[in-house]
Amino acid sequence: MSSGGSMMRARFFASIFGVVLGPIAALPAAAEILNPPVLMDERAPIAKPMLAETAPLRPLPGNTTPVRGDRLLDLQIKYIDNQIYNPSTGGYDKVHLRGYTGKGVDPNAPYVSPTIEANPGDTVRVTLDNQLPAGPQPGDPGCMPGGHTMPDIPHCFNGTNLHTHGLWVSPSGNSDNVLLSINPQTKFTYEYNLPSDHPSGTFWYHTHRHGSTALQVSSGMAGALIIRGNRFPTPNAHGDIDTLIPTSAIPERILVMQQIQYACRGKPAKPGDLGPIKQDINGRYICDQGDVGGIEGYDQFGPGTWPASGRYTSLNGKVFNPNDPMKATQGQIERWRMIHAGVRDTISLQFFKVTDGKLASGVKTLVKADNAAAFIKDSCDTSSPVPYQLIAADGLTMAAAQTTKLATFQPGYRFDALVVFPEAGRYCVIDSSAPKSGSVNALDAGPQLLGLVDVAPGKPVDNVEAYINRALVSLAETNMPENVKATVVADLKAGTKFTSFTPHPDVTDDEVKGNGTQELTFFIDTTGPDTKFEVGNTLNTADVKPYDPNRIDRSLPLGKAQEWTLQSHFVSHPFHIHVNPFQIVSITDPNGKDVSAPGAVDDAGGAPYDPQYVGLKGVWKDTLWIKSLIPQNLPAGFSGIYTIKVRTRYERYIGEYVLHCHILDHEDQGMMQNVAVVLPDQVTDTTQGEAMDMGGHNDHK
Hints:
The chain is mainly beta. Among the domains are: 46-81 and 89-138 and 148-229, Cupredoxins -  blue copper proteins (Immunoglobulin-like, Sandwich); 509-700, Cupredoxins -  blue copper proteins (Immunoglobulin-like), CATH 2.60.40.420. Helices cover 10% and strands 30% of the residues. The protein has eight helices and 36 strands. It has a seven-stranded mixed sheet. A six-stranded mixed sheet has the order 24-23-27-32-29-30, with no helix packed on it. Strands 1, 2, 3, 5 and 8 form a five-stranded mixed sheet that branches. Strand 23 (517-525) and strand 24 form a beta hairpin. The radius of gyration is 25 Å and the shape is globular. It starts with a helix and ends with a strand.
């Protein structure tokens, strides 16, 4: 073939796979994707007396001596002007987005919030300084209660508050109180008193002002919240897994995964309105020369909007760029603390070796949304996914490690994993395709390339599972106290069990007996002129209601444990409840099969295999996908409804808080309930709870 024909063929494949050929401009120097910066104390920590039975904790970054005490942190909220890489164009889009800023934030990656670190027993004080502009905003009904016809219309785009997702702290006052509204040009100090027995683990924080939660979280207003522990297990008490896998031996990587769904807009039809989103003929969001992207309206959310937008999931504030890889060493086990801090995507995480000759450093690469699947197939060896081991779910250490080649993250999920790359070279980090019924968008969305890992030569790995197990046994033999060493080692050798490190005992049949039950149904009512996002207290749709800030939907008995039964009667939703986590009892498919058991296969109704539930029986979480198969795909007479049973304890804290769908635009539009933990003699109906009056948002102005 002539050289001209070869070039034509090369350009044809370039059009499919998005690789730019020929001379290119000089590329920026490689910049590794690093852990988000730690939010530093603005003032010196204030020590408070040690508990006699508690060992001193190691210092956090920036502290020179071990101290248990107050963490004094400042977070400002303002508009931040910066840029986000666009893999479809190979350039950067200018954006103007709301974000958190604070001491130590990386100005080159401002759209991931700084990490907050603390220890059990600390008091963490965060002064939230809302510097967003006050006054009317285009497309925003405003912040004041009563300023709109109903509470479940998106509103108060510049009002905010702070939620510490997964923390076991009080929901009242100035603690984890999401019923506050910190309005523009207002400061408020949150105070989180972490009990000395708080589990160590991976949690996160984000804005949670009803009416603007999705808009602000999608702007990047979310960050990791790490509780670090140094409590060794004893013959009578469990300890922190941090003592088995210290960072000196097992380095850690924090990955905050976000969907920053910015859009550029055309000219508005009239003053005070938002202009239309600029899109190409395929519906992909586009920004023209001189445009600045933003997130200013709820037309940027809704079914299918994320995959249709052509935007890309970011890792620690950075969208995939072949010149911004992560770096690792062959044979070095790492602890990956992974947080789904996005709004409208399901992430199915896999690792693949880069195909020989592909994705070479220094080659400019375009990854167009329309051709992502073909690009990944050409560039990554998808026939051999790298296994890794899950060790914690939603921050809570699991009873045993679970080896997987794919972990499913729904919005709000966290998994801690032990990851080791068996060979040197370059690896793809992939968000694989998920089945429709297992995905937020209920679409056959293709895979996405999230990032790359450059692995330097090191120690060969024969078998990932065996290699990690041998390393953990060696660490236990070296570091565990003599009075528990034999127990810990025996557990590890018997299937990488973490019996001495789990934070909560199982909730038994006897513990829930006689305490009543709770039922919950998610539902979207599309029959009227306005779609209603609703929650009910029975396993049908007879009593479903949209959120009302002046109503408490359930009263729950302090000091008791209950079993909950959860369903969704219109598509699927991630259920999240504040304060107290829950233990999964069973996840039953529409045929009556428990698909949460180890080795279970979830393919009900002929749907494609969905791996997300396998192995979750007995696992503790605070967020869980409530699945309902898509009606038009079901056989006649087949309900498609999954039934989930969980158990939870209402420990220590009384007060009012919320449960909701963690597709956050669903929450903003009414898929939320107020619940109250009260003294047991104040609960008259333990099955559903008794409605009580309460105040709505308490605005701080």
